[in-house]
TrEMBL record:
Species lineage: Bacteria, Pseudomonadati, Thermodesulfobacteriota, Desulfuromonadia, Desulfuromonadales
Domain DUF1468 residue range list: 15-149
Keyword Transmembrane helix annotated: yes
Keyword annotations: Membrane, Transmembrane, Transmembrane helix
InterPro entries assigned: DUF1468
Keyword Thylakoid in annotation: no
Superkingdom per UniProt: Bacteria
Protein name, UniProt field: Tripartite tricarboxylate transporter TctB family protein
A Pfam family of this chain: TctB
Length: 161
């Protein structure tokens, strides 16, 4: 890892760490009640621990990898075609939500994006995409006060739970 990339990564993580600590402190200062800190404190704790882990990992990996990496071992830059294809998939995902529903659109988007990134095992494509779409649909069904456009979601959630 070059010095420039090391400093940029540490700067970004430090920014997240400072922002999270500030938000936690401000929330605690506003109201130290359990209702106020019920979601903020665990989430902030996880973010702080992850930031500290990234800082430690980055510093120790930098010390281990001081030798210069040869040209052959450097990762190849991603092709522009795959980036454009991912952007097209995202646009299709957003536009198709009203027609086929959030749950089915999420399933198809996840499967297509994983296939685009090189995953070829059909069981993994279908299983992970279904699990992700189901959990996200379940979350939105219970946490958002207005109904999401879903094709299978409500009936499937009621049957499985």
């Amino acid at each position: 890892m070059k010095n420039r990339s090391l400093y940029s990564e540490l700067s970004l993580v430090s920014f997240f760490l400072i922002l999270t600590c500030w938000y936690l402190f401000d929330s605690y200062k506003a109201s130290a009640s359990t209702e106020n800190l019920l979601l903020i404190l665990p989430s902030a704790s996880v973010v702080i621990l992850l930031c500290l882990w990234v800082v430690l990992r980055t510093c120790f990996n930098f010390r281990k990898q001081k030798e210069v990496v040869s040209e052959e071992e450097q990762p190849k830059p991603e092709k522009k075609v795959s980036v454009l294809a991912a952007m097209a998939l995202l646009a299709g995902y957003v536009l198709s939500m009203d027609w086929i529903g959030f749950d089915v659109a999420t399933f198809l988007f996840m499967a297509a994006l994983m296939f685009l990134q090189g995953e070829r095992r059909l069981v993994w494509l279908g299983g992970f995409s279904f699990g992700f779409a189901f959990l996200v649909s379940l979350f939105f069904e219970y946490m958002i006060p207005y109904p999401m456009p879903m094709l299978l979601g409500r009936e499937m959630i009621e049957r499985l739970i």
